Amino acid sequence: MQAEERQKRITEHLQKAEFSSLEELSELVDASVSTVRRDLTYLESKGQLKRTHGGARLIQPKSEEFIFSERDTHEIDEKEKIGKTCADYIPGNQSVIIDAGTTAYHVAKHLETKSPQIITNSLPVANLYASNGMVEVILSGGVIYPRLGVLVGPLAVESFSRIHADIAIMGSGGITEEGITNSHNLLIDIQKEMIRAAQKVIFCLDHTKFGRKSVSHLCELDQVDTIITDARAPQSSLEPLRQRGIEIIQTD
Amino acid sequence: MQAEERQKRITEHLQKAEFSSLEELSELVDASVSTVRRDLTYLESKGQLKRTHGGARLIQPKSEEFIFSERDTHEIDEKEKIGKTCADYIPGNQSVIIDAGTTAYHVAKHLETKSPQIITNSLPVANLYASNGMVEVILSGGVIYPRLGVLVGPLAVESFSRIHADIAIMGSGGITEEGITNSHNLLIDIQKEMIRAAQKVIFCLDHTKFGRKSVSHLCELDQVDTIITDARAPQSSLEPLRQRGIEIIQTD
DNA sequence: TCAAAAACGTTCAAAATCTATCAAATATGC
DNA sequence: GCATATTTGATAGATTTTGAACGTTTTTGA
């Protein structure tokens, strides 16, 4: 059997089985475990699957769970600080749109004392205050995007198209002088409506986001009122933003 | 079995069981308790679950976090059985509206294998499958009714007014020959839309609901296709319903 | 309150798996 | 056809994972 055919069979088998051992795959493609090992290493480098001890695992294309667990574990201190700073900055008794994503989630965590009205499409944010009673939460409708707990689709877009709010707290994948970008196309339509609906737009961006471009364009810089970031954000990136009239707040 | 597969099975099992002992898990994944212990320690560090003495539980005991109502915490066994029976009764690949409330929640718990499309205004139900990927969940919008985790208000009503579904799985406070009644006025408008939207209407009612009248009128009996109840339901109440052409299914 | 029982964390050796390497087998180019 | 390059399967030593043992801590029930 050709190498390519072997690899094709392996990925196909994983699509069905989700997990598989070296033994099993070796038998399936009628090759030695050494060969299968090599195939798996190669396929992993191409992002087709994830090697595990003793075998391999399927990576679902939807498994963008990194936003809420993996990526979250990196800059967690910074995000926590940004969340606190942003929450402190927000006046009481406002209606606040909270974007889906880790950064905005950390803001939501600190909002309780401001007795806001929260409007969101994030299931984790909704769960934060679902049994609280002190904070009124409006959840947009939509289809649940698996593993992220974000509500997406036309129902979500429409929910935001019909409301107004004092503040929108947003996150994104990157910011350059050409505007703000984000990675998930599904989210962009919703985020655009959020920005439209809010009187004041606040972006929470940790220092890794500056100068970075993500897949899709979300909005121009003149739609942004305030950016909240951490101390490690490069001044060279911040200064041009200030000159455009954007308020910049840095954590200490 | 691979380590990751084991861990996935453990978390999946906990999603359903909410709590599980080491013994039980060890048997489930066919590994020693030592290994399961290690898995649990790891999964706890990732925030997937909470270790307890003797086992582990869900980090958010999803049904317990929301206090549905006091009387609902009784009859748990019956509701569990009704949930299983109802889930078994439903064909695969249907679009299913799930009412808010404990009884319908128990049905939702058993629906995974039917790969349904779930449409609901219940946050606990949404959380059940939020990280699943196998089950598509559409959540209506709305204001979160505190402590119940139910989405209510015009946004919720409107969400259901614009959709259609194969089946609606409903619960209520009481049923008499004069119709079905429920206690929460806020819910009734939504439930009416649910019933309208569905081709087939199934009510899950434990035996305490028969002959009982709640505050507000929800619907007439001729709008009901099927009733699923437990073995203790009084035959004297069931017979008139059968004569009206309603299908009655009892658990054993 | 106290003692028995259950469960916990730690440690350790065995088993399984990994990486690196190398010779044989196969394919490729001239 | 022959020399060379690539792929394959096997082996050896390092690494990781596993299951069991043991002393300690927590829970249970009288």
- Which second-level CATH architecture of the largest domain in chain A applies? 3-Layer(aba) Sandwich
The chain pair with the largest interface is: A-B, 35 and 36 residues
Number of helices of chain A: 10
Major sheet: arrangement of strands of chain A: 6-5-4-9-12-14-15
Count up the domains of chain A. 2
Shape, principal axes of CA atoms of chain A: elongated
User: What is the structural class of chain A?
Assistant: alpha/beta
Q: What is the distance, rounded to the nearest whole angstrom, between the alpha carbons of the first and last residues of chain A?
A: 60 Å
Residue-averaged pLDDT of chain A, rounded? 86
Query: Which spans of chain A have pLDDT < 50 for at least 5 consecutive residues?
Result: 61-76
Number of strands of chain A: 15
CATH topology of the largest domain in chain A: Rossmann fold
The top level CATH class name of the largest domain in chain A: Alpha Beta
Q: What integer value in Å does the Rg of chain A equal?
A: 22 Å
What helical percentage do the residues of chain A reach?
25-40%
> Order of SSEs of chain A, N→C?
HEHHEEHHEHEHEEEHEEEHEEEHE
How would you characterize the overall build of this protein?
Two copies of one chain form a homodimer. Chain A has ten helices and 15 strands. Chain A is an alpha/beta fold and 252 residues long. Chain A has two domains: 3-58, Orthogonal Bundle (Arc Repressor Mutant, subunit A); 70-250, Rossmann fold, CATH 3.40.50. The first copy, chain A, has a seven-stranded parallel sheet, with helices on both faces. A three-stranded antiparallel sheet of chain A has the order 1-3-2. A three-stranded antiparallel sheet of chain A has the order 10-11-13, with helices on one face. In chain A, helix 10 links the parallel strand 14 and strand 15. In chain A, helix 1 (3-17) packs across helix 3 (33-45), helix 2 crosses helix 3 and helix 8 runs parallel beside helix 9 (185-197). Chain A binds chain B through residues 18-19, 21, 52-55, 57, 60, 62, 69, 123, 126-127, 129-133, 136-144, 146-147, 149, 151, 153, 155, 159, and chain B through 1-5, 8, 46-47, 60, 65-67, 123, 126-127, 129-133, 136-144, 146-147, 149, 151, 153, 155, 159. Strand 6 (136-139) of chain A pairs antiparallel with strand 7 (142-145) of chain B, so a sheet runs across the interface. Chain B binds a DNA duplex (30 and 30 nucleotides) through residues 3, 22, 31-35, 37-38, 41, 53-54.
